[in-house]
């Protein structure tokens, strides 16, 4: 395994504050990006807004400092957070605006090192103003792929109008004109008129571009080889740097430091039901390339009907499976399913997904195609059967099948159908098409590793950023 060099040896390295959006799919890449910066010699404090993340389970964090920002409750009259509601957004912004400058001063007093930069989640564009008030440079961090960002940018600039009502319309988007997109391939909020939150979500996503040209850097959790043309297009527009995959480097064949051996890095909003040892033993006991891994991420909530369809597919497939059904979703599992399939299947409330994807017995991933899950599977060379639900997931699924050639996308989005899952799994496992899919999966795995290896495209982009910060401090 390659070990990265700590290149800086100054007593007072630049101190970077990283502010993720307080959701699992945003905390994970921010945390791993923090670890990459630390491996280059920077100090990093991850700023986690605690209202939504009250039950975080803390894994190994090494030298990463985490500061939890408590809700600023001077104005308590606002209602409590509703599931799926946006009440917390204002409080998140208010709290960060008020508390972050004070926290930065506290950190400076304690460590002698003032904040040198604020890296904020792109869906919190108001943080740019916070950085300006603190008189420090800042970077916007996009946690979705460039393809999705390019589509949303087209919407922001008025080239795509929403809600899209002509369901037969086809789209070609600047930066990726070679890909023809059907309406159902676009982020759901552009066309899903049944989703009551769509207008709010779309406004939030469009706002990412409202001041991004003013950011000193724009980062994205992707890698150049994966989205080459769009990355170049982005580089012509912004001070853009692809820095992904921001997944624990140990899974990409790179050790960040001599004690970087633990796979349990993270801050998890969900508790794994079994110990990593139990899960490993279960996976070890399965045949190589036999287990179908199924997960719909941290947010998607399948209907009872969709959950039944997934269960029916797993029953008919008659293969080993590991199915993550979050605690809040468990009562949707058809009665008797867990018992009837216990000889070959395991249903868990949460697990360490990367351990599963990296395991030799895993053969494919039935996924909602959240961006973290997608880039994790791409990086581990695991073929995917896409069952996208909402947000960027349909676009990621389209790319999984048509652009990267690493899986099957469903005919109808936001709809799990038992036959489709069954055929999808068979298709990515057996026959001529499966051979091509496996070959592509290996190719992207190799390219993902090359991007983060010392001197690889993402590694160089991170080093350039570190050098620029150091120079600013001199
Ligand atoms: C959300 C949106 O749904 C997604 O579309 C967007 O791209 C990011 O924000 P989420 O639904 O959580 O994300 O999916 P995903 O992006 O795939 O992130 C889930 C993360 O949780 C992954 O890093 C995955 O490894 C981890 N995970 C998931 C576990 O560690 N254990 C599990 O059991 C399931």
Automatic annotation (TrEMBL):
It holds the Pfam family UDPGT. Residues 1-13 are annotated as: Disordered. It catalyses: an anthocyanidin + UDP-alpha-D-glucose + H(+) = an anthocyanidin 3-O-beta-D-glucoside + UDP. It comes from the Eukaryota. The keyword Repressor does not apply. Keywords: Glycosyltransferase, Transferase. Residues 1-10 have a biased composition (Polar residues). Pathway: Pigment biosynthesis; anthocyanin biosynthesis. CDD domains: GT1_Gtf-like (cd03784). PROSITE patterns: UDPGT. GO terms for molecular function: anthocyanidin 3-O-glucosyltransferase activity; quercetin 3-O-glucosyltransferase activity; quercetin 7-O-glucosyltransferase activity. It is an enzyme of class 2 (transferase). Its EC number is 2.4.1.-. Belongs to the UDP-glycosyltransferase family. PANTHER family: GLUCOSYL/GLUCURONOSYL TRANSFERASES, UDP-GLYCOSYLTRANSFERASE 74E1-RELATED. This is Glycosyltransferase.
């Amino acid at each position: 395994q390659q070990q990265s060099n700590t290149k800086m040896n100054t007593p007072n390295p630049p101190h970077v504050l990283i502010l993720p959006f307080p959701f699992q799919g945003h905390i994970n890449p921010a945390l791993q990006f923090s670890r990459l910066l630390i491996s280059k010699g920077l100090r990093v404090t991850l700023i986690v807004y605690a209202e939504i993340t009250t039950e975080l389970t803390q894994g190994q964090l090494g030298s990463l400092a985490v500061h939890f920002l408590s809700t600023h409750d001077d104005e308590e009259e606002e209602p409590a957070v509703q599931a799926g509601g946006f009440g917390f957004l204002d409080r998140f912004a208010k709290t960060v605006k008020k508390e972050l400058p004070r926290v930065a001063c506290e950190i400076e007093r304690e460590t002698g090192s003032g904040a040198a930069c604020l890296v904020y989640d792109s869906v919190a564009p108001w943080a740019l103003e916070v950085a300006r008030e603190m008189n420090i440079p800042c970077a916007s961090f996009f946690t979705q792929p460039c393809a999705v960002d390019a589509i949303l940018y087209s919407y922001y600039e008025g080239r795509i109008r929403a809600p899209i009502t002509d369901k037969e319309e086809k789209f070609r988007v600047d930066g990726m004109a070679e890909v023809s997109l059907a309406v159902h391939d676009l982020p759901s909020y552009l066309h899903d008129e049944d989703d009551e939150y769509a207008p709010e979500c779309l406004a939030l996503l469009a706002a990412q571009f409202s001041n991004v040209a003013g950011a000193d850097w724009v980062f994205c959790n992707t890698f150049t080889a994966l989205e080459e043309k769009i990355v170049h297009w982005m580089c012509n527009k912004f001070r853009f740097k692809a820095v992904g995959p921001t997944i624990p480097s140990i899974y990409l064949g790179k050790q960040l430091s001599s004690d970087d051996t633990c796979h349990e890095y993270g801050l998890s909003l969900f508790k794994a039901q079994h110990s990593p040892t139990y899960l490993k033993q279960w996976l070890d006991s399965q045949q190589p390339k036999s287990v179908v891994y199924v997960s719909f991420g941290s947010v998607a909530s399948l209907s009872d009907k969709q959950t039944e369809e997934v269960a029916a597919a797993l029953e008919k497939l008659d293969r080993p499976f590991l199915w993550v059904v979050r605690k809040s979703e468990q009562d949707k599992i058809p009665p008797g399913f867990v018992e009837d399939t216990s000889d070959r299947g395991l249903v868990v409330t949460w697990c360490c997904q990367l351990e599963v994807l990296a395991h030799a017995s895993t053969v494919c991933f039935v996924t909602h195609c959240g961006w973290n899950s997608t880039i994790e599977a791409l990086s581990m060379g695991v073929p995917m059967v896409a069952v996208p639900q909402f947000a960027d997931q349909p676009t990621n699924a389209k790319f999984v099948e048509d652009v990267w050639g690493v899986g099957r996308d469903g005919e109808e989005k936001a709809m799990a159908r038992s036959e489709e899952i069954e055929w999808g799994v068979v298709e990515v496992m057996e026959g001529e098409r499966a051979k091509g899919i496996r070959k592509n999966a290996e190719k992207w795995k190799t390219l993902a590793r090359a991007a983060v290896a010392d001197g690889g495209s993402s590694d160089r982009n991170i080093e350039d950023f570190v050098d620029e910060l150091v120079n600013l401090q001199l």
